[in-house]
Amino acid sequence: MGNAAMSGRGKHRPVLLLLLVLAASSVLVAKAANCSAELEAAGAAGTGVTTEWIDAATPDTACTAQLCTDDFDTCNVASPPLSTLQLVFSDEFETEGQQLNVAAGNKRWTAEQLHYGATQDIEVYLPEQVTTEGGAAVITIDQVADGGSATALGQLAGGAVANVSSAYKSGFVDSWNKFCFTGGYLESRLQLPGNETVSGFWPALWLMGNLARGGYAETTRGFWPYSYSSCGGADVGAEFGAGGPALQNISACSDPPGFNRTKFGLEPGVGRGAPEIDLLEVMVGSSKRLKPGQAARPAKPGEQVYPHNLVTMQTAPLLPNGTTWTATDAAGKVVPGPGQYLPKDQLPNGMVTDLAWWKGPYTNSSDTPQTRPGSLYQDAVGAYASVNASFFTSFHTFGLHWVPREHVRWYIDGVLVYEVSQEALREQTNSTGYTVHERLIPVEPMAIIFNLAMSESFGYVDLEKLAFPSQYKVDYVRVYQNASAVNLGCSPPDFPTAQYLACNRDKYLLTEEDQSLVQGACMGAASCIQEAEVNFEGGDIPDGNGSALLPQQLATVKQCCQACQALPACGAYVYSTVQQMCYFKAPSGWTKVAAPDPGFGALAGVVYASGQTWPRGTNSSSGDSPAAAPQPASSSVGEAWQPPTNRSPPTASPRATAGSPSAPAPPPVPSSSGASVPGIQASAAALVALAVAMLLW
Ligand SMILES: *[C@@H]1O[C@H](CO)[C@@H](O)[C@H](O)[C@H]1NC(C)=O
Ligand SMILES: *[C@@H]1O[C@H](CO)[C@@H](O)[C@H](O)[C@H]1NC(C)=O
Ligand SMILES: *[C@@H]1O[C@H](CO)[C@@H](O)[C@H](O)[C@H]1NC(C)=O
Ligand SMILES: *[C@@H]1O[C@H](CO)[C@@H](O)[C@H](O)[C@H]1NC(C)=O
Ligand SMILES: *[C@@H]1O[C@H](CO)[C@@H](O)[C@H](O)[C@H]1NC(C)=O
Ligand SMILES: *[C@@H]1O[C@H](CO)[C@@H](O)[C@H](O)[C@H]1NC(C)=O
Ligand SMILES: *[C@@H]1O[C@H](CO)[C@@H](O)[C@H](O)[C@H]1NC(C)=O
Ligand SMILES: *[C@@H]1O[C@H](CO)[C@@H](O)[C@H](O)[C@H]1NC(C)=O
Ligand SMILES: *[C@@H]1O[C@H](CO)[C@@H](O)[C@H](O)[C@H]1NC(C)=O
Ligand SMILES: *[C@@H]1O[C@H](CO)[C@@H](O)[C@H](O)[C@H]1NC(C)=O
Ligand SMILES: *[C@@H]1O[C@H](CO)[C@@H](O)[C@H](O)[C@H]1NC(C)=O
Ligand SMILES: *[C@@H]1O[C@H](CO)[C@@H](O)[C@H](O)[C@H]1NC(C)=O
């Protein structure tokens, strides 16, 4: 990047001098570089660049990724054309002995205490089964000592909570509502647990939309794995009744009576969901079928490759009966349909790939080729890629290139193994005229999950032969994006999730401790009381550096109210209609003064939280509450959210999956106006008659 600038400057100089300048510059740049600085430099002209997610321990060599961003056939060659993507997130796990439980407050990850019921897991997940060791995040799966058992809560579809005991314990780590990204290249280097001969460990690394929390079945219901923003077609599978798939909860259709999505800041007409993309799901295969010494080999119809990694994108609604995305070749073999790609040529290292299929709702047999892969709850478009013994004894690199509405591609050790593109998810109509419109290559903010399970729902679990304890090691997790189009955050402006989570805390958070995972108030039932030509003096919110939180440039006072509501420490705000600047104030500690300055255009407001008749963050309307503003009528606050009518919950959701995340309210973006002290100049003028407005946003 420095080179490009230099070559511009040096273009009229003698060539030799230019080369010297370039060389010197490169050396200097290399020495001074770190990945945060590189991202800042690369993204200088762009928007939304933040370096906060980059682990300072990331080696300089990992600051960029060279990736083929062309079409599959162009990329599926020995030396494809490469583009540069910039590191935007990393965890190198270099700090030893880290705990990732909720209380540890890790910025990126949470190690869950959870029973994953959707896939009838044998183990329970405990935070203490996850630590950092030897420069990797390590998940240890083990048998509980002395024939004892471990317990964890598991949420069932419908919201009931089970306290589950198991003789086996393992770990589940997610970045739900902490770190999410939309599009980019995800890369992880990891070592698998167990070995290539014994079946039963199910290590995974995957992505799920933030609107669902992985393993919390009431949060996945109606969200997972919808990737659909069309009205109509979403009731495929309805013929299976209560045991069938849940309808899309937030669809592109109008809201059902009694439900209004705008309360959650969600756009009418936009379908929402929690899609899933799996980078790694390894299964050795049924040891009943795996003969001693049997090496990886191509699959026959109905057979899997052993051992193998299953790479899939999961989507809903299902295609209607009678349609498929696969094709059949002259020999009757199931091959990729339009928009799906497997490498045509021999892969290196004896690796083989094949299209994935398994039994689905319309074809039950897993022993014959299926024309319509998937299950009753999901269409899983994907492929198998073989892995060999070395994946269990050393680290290998897995990559996922996700471009919303375009494609998802998977790499193993740099080898492109499969692509599903938007074309594969095109609209289809069956012979009775039933249409399902295009499902989308995910557009939702996705969180990262890595976990180690055991479940017969994924493959044969040979509890007698499996060795305990065993370890699944993740050396690093890195995310790269186009520096001029960085899209990070669990609640980006075009696909917000923060309010949905804040207004449905009971669904997403089962324990008191978990409350910290969702920040901000539910604005849907909250309000701001506001006056004109008023200032609040004092009561600034400390920014942790000994000064006050910077104001934020916002176009409307409504956004200012909402920004304050989303910021836990905020209880009041002052907004300049002239500067379009929002100043944040604590719930108390400030004094109301008149500010009749037309050059500022002050509006000052106090935030009322859900169900309260006094300002948020204070205990009552009496005493020294700063709110000189009138109390809202109790009938107009705390309006209860009415869910739409229910469809019966499914009894299980399959996994090859589940998942989800949301993020703490982003801190206000410091404005470039140079304002360093929040609050506005107090006017000494006499109090003007105030227009008082009670605003329900
Ligand atoms: C890396 O670059 C960032 C951004 O320029 C800077 O804040 C940080 O101090 C640098 N870190 C090191 C270790 O040089
Ligand atoms: C990054 O985005 C810009 C602007 O959309 C585009 O011109 C460029 O080709 C992109 N680069 C890559 C590597 O995708
Ligand atoms: C779950 O059950 C275990 C043992 O039966 C018990 O110790 C634990 O307190 C229970 N947890 C909850 C949250 O009820
Ligand atoms: C939902 O609420 C918004 C904002 O209050 C309102 O404009 C809209 O008309 C409501 N929609 C329905 C279908 O009631
Ligand atoms: C077309 O799809 C609908 C929805 O899945 C299904 O009810 C109908 O039976 C299908 N028609 C055929 C011919 O399979
Ligand atoms: C799906 O379509 C096939 C062939 O048209 C038909 O035999 C089968 O009964 C249908 N299944 C369902 C569940 O509609
Ligand atoms: C598939 O299996 C289920 C349950 O075993 C059964 O109810 C359903 O009728 C079967 N469908 C077909 C198409 O055979
Ligand atoms: C196993 O796979 C790795 C990476 O794909 C390769 O480097 C190695 O040579 C393979 N080992 C064998 C025995 O095929
Ligand atoms: C694989 O692990 C099992 C224990 O689960 C052990 O008995 C077996 O010898 C191992 N095989 C190889 C090839 O390492
Ligand atoms: C401290 O100040 C710096 C520079 O303004 C800012 O980036 C950072 O977020 C502040 N820290 C906190 C905790 O607010
Ligand atoms: C509200 O009251 C509780 C219990 O009396 C107290 O712990 C808490 O600090 C009070 N909060 C505020 C903001 O005054
Ligand atoms: C959406 O979710 C709510 C709350 O879980 C539920 O009551 C409602 O039935 C769902 N709506 C649809 C259309 O599935």
* Biggest sheet record: 12 strands, mixed
For the terminal residues, how far apart are their CA atoms?
Answer: 45 Å
Determine the number of helices (DSSP H or I, runs of at least 4 residues). Answer: 8
Percent helix range: under 10%
Number of domains: 2
Named at the architecture level, the CATH assignment of the largest domain is Sandwich
Which ligands does the model contain, each kind named once? 2-acetamido-2-deoxy-beta-D-glucopyranose
Description:
This protein has 697 residues and is mainly β. It folds into two domains: 91-481, Jelly Rolls; 519-672 and 684-695, Hepatocyte Growth Factor, CATH 3.50.4.10. 9% of the residues lie in helices and 27% in strands. The chain is built from eight helices and 34 strands. Strands 1, 2, 4, 5, 6, 9, 12, 18, 21, 22, 23 and 27 form a twelve-stranded mixed sheet that branches. β24 and β25 form a beta hairpin. α1 (2-9) runs antiparallel to α2. The two termini are 45 Å apart. The site of one 2-acetamido-2-deoxy-beta-D-glucopyranose has 9 residues, from loops.
Give the arrangement of secondary structure elements.
Blueprint: H1 2-9, H2 15-32, H3 35-42, E1 64-67, H4 72-75, E2 83-91, E3 110-111, E4 124-125, E5 130-133, E6 136-143, E7 150-155, E8 161-166, E9 168-170, E10 172-174, E11 180-181, E12 184-191, E13 202-209, H5 217-220, E14 276-283, E15 308-315, E16 326-328, E17 334-336, E18 340-341, E19 353-355, E20 379-386, E21 396-403, E22 407-412, E23 415-421, E24 428-429, E25 435-436, E26 446-453, E27 470-481, H6 498-502, H7 505-508, E28 527-532, E29 534-540, E30 552-553, H8 557-566, E31 572-576, E32 581-594, E33 602-608, E34 692-695
Parallel strand pairs: 4-9
Antiparallel strand pairs: 1-2, 2-27, 3-10, 5-6, 6-9, 6-27, 7-8, 10-26, 11-26, 12-21, 12-27, 13-14, 13-26, 14-15, 15-20, 16-17, 18-23, 19-20, 21-22, 22-23, 24-25, 28-33, 28-34, 29-32, 30-32, 31-32, 31-33
Helix pairs in contact: 1-2
Family: Belongs to the SKN1/KRE6 family.
Membrane topology: Single-pass type II membrane protein
Region (Disordered): 615-677
